[in-house]
Amino acid sequence: MAQLWGGRFTKETEQEVYDFNASITFDKRLFECDVRGSRAHVRMLAKQGIITEKDCEDILRGLDGIEADVASGKLEITTRYEDVHSFVEANLIDRIGDAGKKMHTGRSRNDQVALDMRLFVRDHVESTTEQLSALLETLLGMMKENIDTIMPGFTHLQKAQPVTLAHHLGAYFEMFKRDRERLLSIRERMNYCPLGSGALAGTTYPLDREFVAGELSFTGPCANSMDGVSDRDYLLEYLSALSIIMMHLSRFSEEIIIWNSNEYRFIDLDDGYSTGSSIMPQKKNPDIAELVRGKTGRVYGALMSLLTTMKGLPLAYNKDMQEDKELSFDAMDTASACIRLFTGMLSTTTFNKERMADSCRGGFTNATDLADYLVGKGVPFRDAHGIVGRVVIECSERGIAIDDLKLDELKKYSELIDADVFEAIDLKNCVDRRNTDGAPGREAMERLLQKYYKDFTN
Ligand code: ARG
Questions:
Q1: 240 catalytic residue (yes or no)
Q2: How many CA atoms lie within 13 A of 182 on its CB side?
Q3: Mean pLDDT throughout 293-312?
Q4: Tens digit of pLDDT for each residue in 30-63?
Q5: pLDDT for 457
Q6: Class of domain 6-105
Q7: Among candidates 30, 22, 213, which has minimal Cα distance to 117?
Q8: Which residues line ligand 1 (CB under 6 A)?
Q9: Quick check: 275 pLDDT over 90?
Q10: Fold (topology level) of 358-451
């Protein structure tokens, strides 16, 4: 047992208590952030004359050595230490002796762990932002390729009106774009440095908190030391942003699963991104999409867990807060893997364009356009709706599309229907006439893509 706080105690901690209390098995992931924070701290201590330049150099060299040995595997972060902070400090003292004992001057583990976690999460927010950019880029490329790929748009999972694949993918583009913006704003809001908050009440040493914040690329120090050690809002915001990303990925996965089903056959998943069955030789399963959908719950779980942990905590630090790590790490790993794998799966998927257009044709998705055509000929919309309803009954009974009816068959429903009806209900035309902002028509879509390319490449 290597602990930092033996002095006040007359008896050894029970082994089970030690194990229950220890966090090294999971906070060892903060090692790199912990060393980064300590370097900034000791540089500041020396600059302020709180420790000597010589002690500072020795500590920095000691930290370099520890980092190199951990990287090479020569030094292992083991459960002999209570947490990662103890591991670093104990090893530093082993290496450089008394100077090592000065590293923790003017610092508490409370502000130290708050800093480590903030650095770790900030790095992660940045890498997730990049992953979302890659996903957005993939989507943008696919949209460009599919401005004319007609497919049915659905409501209630019933074929509704024709759209294009570009338009459908574009809806997800918007969702992930908002997700990315959310991350950027979280990054900005969280970027304040808790180090220097001490245990809760700052310190009596003349710390230069601005300097430390600058060294670690923060906007500035946290304004209130009690808040500094006990704020986990940024992590809750991040888990909430990750939950929303997962919700979007899960919805998209659900569509991939439906599109990949034997009944739809809209897409073919790449062999590299699907799996087989041990018994049924014909199977090619959308496991990645299903796992992304399935793992969404884990990320929600981490958010709910931390919200619940935090809700009853009086100021300032409480040990409950150690629970901010395990599930958050799991949620971060999970979300990252899901974004990466989903992007790979999506970019290797092929779309059966013929099949999508056929499905659109067979689903009366141009019924609204026929009604609109009648409106154009002077029929009130409600009457037109009724007329087209009767047309659909006949077509359903005969198992044909509206377009398959002859002109004289259509005329039975309204004398106002002329030969120009076929152009009006042609699926391609139906889509291309929808050119208001946000609609699937070619012109509207091209306008939007131009804007996306401009914003995105800047
Ligand atoms: N392992 C602790 C955590 O993750 C570090 C802070 C410990 N501070 C304390 N006062 N016991 O929260």
A1: no
A2: 19
A3: 98
A4: 999 999 999 999 999 999 999 999 999 999 999 9
A5: 72
A6: mainly alpha
A7: 30
A8: 23, 27, 83, 109-110, 113, 317, 319, 321-322
A9: no
A10: Ribonucleotide Reductase Protein R1; domain 1 (1.10.40)
Task: Report the distance separating Cα 3 and Cα 177, nearest Å.
Answer: 46
Q: How far apart are the two ends of the chain, measured CA to CA in Å?
A: 53
What H or E segment, with its residue span, contains residue 53? helix 53-72
229 closest CA partner among 307, 117, 135, 330: 117
The pair of structure tokens assigned to 279 is: 């018994």
DSSP 98: G
User: Which atom in ligand 1 lies closest to the alpha carbon of residue 82?
Assistant: 1
Q: How many whole angstroms from 23 Cα to the centroid of ligand 1? A: 8
CATH code given to domain 110-144+167-183+202-351: 1.20.200.10
Q: Report the pLDDT value the prediction gives residue 2, as an integer from 0 to 100.
A: 63
Burial 32-55 (b: 16+ CB within 10 A, else e): bbbbbbbbbbbbbbbeeebbeeeb
The answer to whether the CB of 21 falls within 8 A of the CB of 82 is yes
Q: Coil, helix or strand for 275? A: strand
> Kind and range of the H or E element at 193?
strand 192-193
Provide the strand spans (E) within 81-173: 150-155, 158-164
CA atoms within 13 A on the CB side of 77: 25
Neighbours of 344 (CB within 10 A): 17
Residue spans per domain, the chain: 6-105, 110-144+167-183+202-351, 358-451
Q: What is the mean pLDDT of residues 260-278?
A: 91
Q: What is the pLDDT of residue 11?
A: 82
What is the rounded CA–CA span in Å between residue 225 and residue 33? Answer: 20
Q: Are 365 and 152 in contact (CB under 8 A)?
A: yes
Q: Is 277 a catalytic residue?
A: yes
Q: Is the pLDDT of residue 277 over 80?
A: no
Q: What is the pLDDT of residues 428-440, one digit of tens each?
A: 999 999 999 999 9
